[in-house]
């Protein structure tokens, strides 16, 4: 990939990510509180709906940019083309590697954000300090495996090279469907990130978290927050992909 194309991908991915995360933040807060073990009301209800937004604002641009710059560079060195039978695999591999890199930034931001969302009376800085004090840096990467697994299951759907309006429509439908399918993993990720140090979920084992949710809350627990999650990802796919394609075109 040429340097100019790399910078265009970096800027376009970053701008699109910031727009989506900030616009849809209230939906994300509602989803997190619905998935939290203490329940929606005790987690804050509709109070402090923007709790944790500083963490998202800081991490959004580098997170989105890291994904797309990795995705574009990996895709450029792998076999691809509209007539190639390897094209879908190329997009999947590029998107998967993009998520692995992006999650190095996303997960610490997500841990602090979610803990702030269920503790609206605590500041983002205080939660960051408490996490580092009690758990160290590894505490910021609680849920890394579950986050990568969740993202890899649907991120490859974003790899179609089409017009911006087509990308937006495809992103909305693909994102909404993937949101429903991956909700149990998202609930497990939330429980792992919010778990107290030393608890079973704090080990980061996805199957343990899923099993615990199934035993205590059943199917409804596994799909907690599915409606706001589906709405946020559908709208996010529409905004993100459309904005990315258009911004990328304008920068080249």
Automatic annotation (TrEMBL):
- Gene name on record? SLC25A26
What's this protein's name? Mitochondrial S-adenosylmethionine carrier protein
- Localization (cell): Mitochondrion inner membrane
- Which SUPFAM superfamilies does the record associate with it? Mitochondrial carrier
Question: Which family would the database say this protein is a member of?
Answer: Belongs to the mitochondrial carrier (TC 2.A.29) family.
The segments carrying the Solcar repeats are: 4-77, 162-250
Starting at the broadest rank, the lineage of the source organism is: Eukaryota, Metazoa, Chordata, Craniata, Vertebrata
Q: Which PANTHER family match?
A: S-ADENOSYLMETHIONINE MITOCHONDRIAL CARRIER PROTEIN
Q: What does this protein do?
A: Mitochondrial S-adenosyl-L-methionine/S-adenosyl-L-homocysteine antiporter. Mediates the exchange of cytosolic S-adenosyl-L-methionine, the predominant methyl-group donor for macromolecule methylation processes, for mitochondrial S-adenosylhomocysteine(SAH), a by-product of methylation reactions.
The protein's organism comes out as Lepidothrix coronata (blue-crowned manakin)
Primary localisation category:
mitochondrion
Q: What residue ranges carry the coiled-coil annotation?
A: none
């Amino acid at each position: 990939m040429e340097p100019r194309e790399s910078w265009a991908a970096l800027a376009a991915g970053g701008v699109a990510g910031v727009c989506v995360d900030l616009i849809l933040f209230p939906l994300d807060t509602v989803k997190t509180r619905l998935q939290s073990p203490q329940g929606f009301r005790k987690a804050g209800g509709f109070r402090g709906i923007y709790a944790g937004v500083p963490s998202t604002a800081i991490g959004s641009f580098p997170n989105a940019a890291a994904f797309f710059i990795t995705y574009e560079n990996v895709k450029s060195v792998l076999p691809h083309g509209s007539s190639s039978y390897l094209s879908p695999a190329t997009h999947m591999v590029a998107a998967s590697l993009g998520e692995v890199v992006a999650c190095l930034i996303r997960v610490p931001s997500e841990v602090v954000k979610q803990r702030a969302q269920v503790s609206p009376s605590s500041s983002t800085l205080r939660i960051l300090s408490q996490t580092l004090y009690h758990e160290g840096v590894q505490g910021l990467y609680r849920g890394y495996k579950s986050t990568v697994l969740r993202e890899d299951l649907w991120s490859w759907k974003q790899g179609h090279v089409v017009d911006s309006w087509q990308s937006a429509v495809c992103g909305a439908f693909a994102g909404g469907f993937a949101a429903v399918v991956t909700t149990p993993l998202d609930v497990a990720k939330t429980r792992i990130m919010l778990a107290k140090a030393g608890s079973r979920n704090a080990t980061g084992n996805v199957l343990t978290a899923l099993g615990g949710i199934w035993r205590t809350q059943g199917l409804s627990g596994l799909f907690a927050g599915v409606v706001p999650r589906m709405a946020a990802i559908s709208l996010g796919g529409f905004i993100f992909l459309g904005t990315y394609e258009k911004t990328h075109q304008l920068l080249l």
